[in-house]
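Field: COMPLEX_INPUT
Field: COMPONENT_COUNT = two
Field: RESIDUE_TOTAL = 512
Field: MODE = joint
Values follow.
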Amino acid sequence: MNKPLILVTNDDGITARGIASLVEAVKSFGDLVVIAPDKPQSGMGHAITVNNLLRLDKAEVFAGTDCYACSGTPVDCVKLAIYHVMHRKPDLVVSGVNHGSNASTNVLYSGTMSAAVEGALEGIPAIGFSLCDHRGEADFEASKQVIKKVVTTVLDKKLPENVCLNVNIPKGKPGDIKGLKICRQAKAFWDDKFDRRQDMFGRDYFWLTGEFRNYDGGEDTDIWALNNNYVSVVPIQFDMTAYHALSHLHYWNNIE
Amino acid sequence: MNKPLILVTNDDGITARGIASLVEAVKSFGDLVVIAPDKPQSGMGHAITVNNLLRLDKAEVFAGTDCYACSGTPVDCVKLAIYHVMHRKPDLVVSGVNHGSNASTNVLYSGTMSAAVEGALEGIPAIGFSLCDHRGEADFEASKQVIKKVVTTVLDKKLPENVCLNVNIPKGKPGDIKGLKICRQAKAFWDDKFDRRQDMFGRDYFWLTGEFRNYDGGEDTDIWALNNNYVSVVPIQFDMTAYHALSHLHYWNNIE
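Field: COMPLEX_OUTPUT
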């Protein structure tokens, strides 16, 4: 069998330390193609570039890998990879390592995870990795060990169709991590705040800040796992239908 | 009881014809605050602005309504509305009318729908409206009648908690529409294509195109409803957990 073809992307941009750690961790598993944003694209969610052009430039970032910087979003990177660069579907999409948690509802805002979801939409096994540490000097050693374990398992056992994984790694040394835990997405939400500031012309601008609050007491959630030093592994799907509401809303079919 | 406070937004921008039709259709239901992007933000999905500032300028677009143009994404608009402009949660969020379908998996890419999903995250009843007609001269008469019917029902009967509606309206005159149909999201996907073009310096750029293909034969889907001249109403939730995969992946908990 040929070596697996692995697409590597992220949302922090091709020069981020997180993607370098990801490349290092997965390079022995197959042939890599790296296509990542040419600038930070955090919080871009499932955005795609429909009102503008896209640039894709060969980059010499990771020795021995086919590497491109893209002017678009993480989802654009996955689309360009499949439909323009590779001309076939890769065997695996890995995205990250994100600088900061993408647990719980952050999956919706996260470019890292949306790249993985786009992989799932294409029927490709896909994994988004995030380290719960925003700092520039974050330690990715534990992440690399986790990535190897997760990628080995996914390549060996595959994933259910149209399911990708949201893998979040607690901050700390490799020895601090208790193991992996399969979880559901916690019911936790951003309590937003906008800082009002002024430019040199006295004109207001706003900066989004806020606090992430967990309202979910369940011990089967990703937040619980992370708080207890487990790596959280949430299987993610893209059917947003609220199936539990369908029968409740059935009367809508009779509205004149 | 006070009149309901209704937040109106969209992704095509504050000057689009679709949001004008939406304002016209909902203005008799309550007090409106309109906060919409100052430029087209189609395909922005659930993107938020975390690496840049946000501008919010008072706009005189719709007489008799409190109206603002925002430099950010549709989700930014909802967040600014709740946490900065209104200082309370509105009773209803309406988004659209989008120029073009947001049925099926388009819900993931759609800024219109992500604004509604952000409403649901905040526990607010929310509805995204889209007309299956991209043309600038699209006829919004049928849409206005549909909007009135849907908003009346939602204000009267409420929605299940953390559920919003993805309402897509077939192209045509009001008389052509057979009724409303509660549906699930069809399994349909974009088959992407990138046009390679060249700028004046002979440098390549790419433009995303493609075709949307339905792989779902079900008669309970939004695509089926629209193809049969029904308004599709899909209840949407934001828990992306693949619950069906949890037990299958249980062995992950034992990986050393």
